Amino acid sequence: MGTGAAMRKAYIIAAMSSLIGLTACTFEREGPPAYHYQEFKSRAPTGNTVFVCHAYGCQKQTQLRFDAPQLAEISALMRKTKKADTPHEERRAVAYAIGWMERYVGNKIGTSADRPGMDFSASGDPTQQDCVDEATNTTSYMLVLQRNGFLKHHTVGRPFSKGNILLGVSNWPHWTGVLWEKGNNQKWAVDSWIYENGENPAVIEAEKWYVKDLDNLPPAQT
């Protein structure tokens, strides 16, 4: 067995071993986003510098900084996107910002070739990202937005997952980034994994997200 195949097999076995005893559909995680980085041995953003996860399960982490020109463009995009000063419109603006940041990062580190969804054969491929990579990166990007004052109606939460491996691969446990809406404390899933690199993520109430299988996931935020 080649090194790449062995790595993929080890990744799948490790993932299944950690999940095989879980029969509940929702795997909540308490605490701040920092706990997610600890759980997956990834690096949290420092200021405007992120450590982009790729190659599945954050096997690779590439440092990249959003400098003043990029932040100015993101800010302008969010202002242009919002039609009103409401939580809903802020979520729309966040989706457009995440799409922009994914395209910028993808062109810098090669993940622009990332295929949507899950492909077990892609583990170890630095151009590809699984849901752990995507949820981690989305959280990092949203933390950059938060730290630069681009979020008024939301705070960034810790990623969580849903799924039940006992129901088959179509119900494989899947991770998503999270926004908490201020005021009503509604939890919103912000999910980039199901789309091609740079498309707007889906933004949907956490309780409505990934209820059945991949064929029932919501469309990208428009």
Uncertain runs: 1-24
SSE succession: HEHEEHHHEEEEE
Helix content percent band: 25-40%
Distance between the termini: 45 Å
Strand proportion: 15-25%
Radius of gyration (Å): 17 Å
Number of strands: 8
- Which sheet architecture does the biggest sheet show? 6 strands, antiparallel
Structural descriptors:
alpha+beta
Question: Please, could you describe this protein's structure?
Answer:
The protein is of the alpha+beta class. It has one domain. The protein has five helices and eight strands, in the order αβαββαααβββββ. The protein has helices spanning 3-19, 33-39, 68-81, 87-109, 131-147, and strands at 26-27, 49-54, 60-65, 154-156, 160-162, 174-181, 187-191, 202-205. Strands 1, 4, 5, 6, 7 and 8 form a six-stranded antiparallel β-sheet that branches. Strands 2-3 form a two-stranded antiparallel sheet. β6 and β7 form a beta hairpin. α3 (68-81) packs antiparallel against α4 (87-109). The protein is globular and about 45 Å long. The N and C termini lie far apart (45 Å). 39% of the residues are buried.
Write a concise synopsis of the structure shown.
This protein is α+β, with helices and mostly antiparallel strands.
